[in-house]
Amino acid sequence: MSNISHIRLTSAEIAIMWSQYQSDSLAKCVLKYFLAKVEDEEIRPLLDFALSLSQNHVAWIRSTYQNEEFASPVGFTNEDVNTNAEKLFDDIFTLHYLNNMSRVGLAAYGLALSTASRQDIREFYIQTLHESIELNERVVKLMLEKGIYARSPYIPANKHVEFAKQQAFLGNVFKESRPLTAVEIMHVFMNIQTNIMGKAMITGFWQTASSPDIRSHFLRGKEIAQKHIEIFTKRLEADDLTGGSSMEPLITTVSQSPFSEKLMLFHISALIQMGIGNYGVAISTSQCYDLAIDYTRLMAEIALYAEDGANLMIKYGWLEEPPQAVDRQMLVENQNMEIFS
């Protein structure tokens, strides 16, 4: 990669690397545990590949931060995972997890590339994008071979182009909605899938967490995810389309947690952030008024749930603050205190 370290990092570049350090250091812990427990020899190479990517990303970001004399984030370490714990997730779940991980990477690295300007940072995110494409391609191929890939619903091919003739096309909160468009189906289906994935993961965390308040938080998240799944599934079923099946059968019955509660809380918070982003994109592409209202109120619900999770992390001293702008008012106040002390 190009050596142009004399050019300062922008706030955007600092932000995307800090966020990636958090997510990749978490992924290292999760993938190490999955690798220690996997029995399916077709899935093992994919876990190996994904782990190597996360390890390389963390090392590169740490080195870049050090070169810029920035404090390296704490993120997550070997203290946050117990690879000797019993198997909590079935191998098929780990494949679904990798699929979700690769899709998140494609979106995150695309955004990172579009906001970065320094050449070495851009080259890094071009590389990570290619890596995520390769991971996604390998994972989807294996899922298709195993018959477990959830395809978006099929709809008949259009024979004619139609133009909206009435405002009713945009929907009405008080009347029965028109059939969903293909774009709306895509987003509703995707949001069902991400909630199914999140509900399964939070179920595993709920049954293994030891702190009563954290366990209660996970239970509430599980119930919220189920509610969202039911609302979105109802929208598809109204048009004789299907949504997807539960992943809870892929969670074992063990009660010993392989992960720290810090990691589990952060992981659920990260899934919520992704969900809020997905809902926001769905709102922007929906031409159905009542569907947009559903997304808006559900997004507000999970935002409040995310705040409660953040408060728990603050309570236990686990919420790592990202780099921030300078509070110059505070600098002045501190200087005045020194003068008059």
Automatic annotation (TrEMBL):
Which named protein is this? Answer: DUF3231 family protein
What organism does this protein naturally occur in? Pelosinus fermentans JBW45
